Amino acid sequence: MTPLTHVTENVFTLRKTDRVIGFYLYDKFNESIARIDALLVDSQNYHSYYLVINLGGFLQVSGKVVVLPVEVCEVKDLGKVKTEWRKESMLGAPAPIDITSLTTFEEELIRDYYALPLQRPCPLKNWEE
After folding, report:
1. Which numeric CATH code is attached to 4-113?
2. Among 11, 35, 49, 92, whose Cα sits 20 to 30 Å from the Cα of 17?
């Protein structure tokens, strides 16, 4: 597996559909969960694999950093991404030690928590710009 790069801005190397940093994540009941702070992308082709959100921070006290696979999310409108997962369920997800260098073991724990195959899906060869 290629290493992942931590991206905190909607840079031009991301596909248009992956430029969701700053969007808000909503659950299936249309309740706001968190703002999307960053993405973890393939270091070679900038294909997005994970959203990075922060749950529960208040007044400069950082909350829990949660890594959410893009397979469990769907971009709905400008500024809005939806997931079937509830905020309370995400609080139980495994958290990486260092978000800028996610290990293979941490990635497998995260994918297992969301009931996804342990291997990342292969990026599409001819993805749309």
Report:
1. 3.90.50.10
2. 92
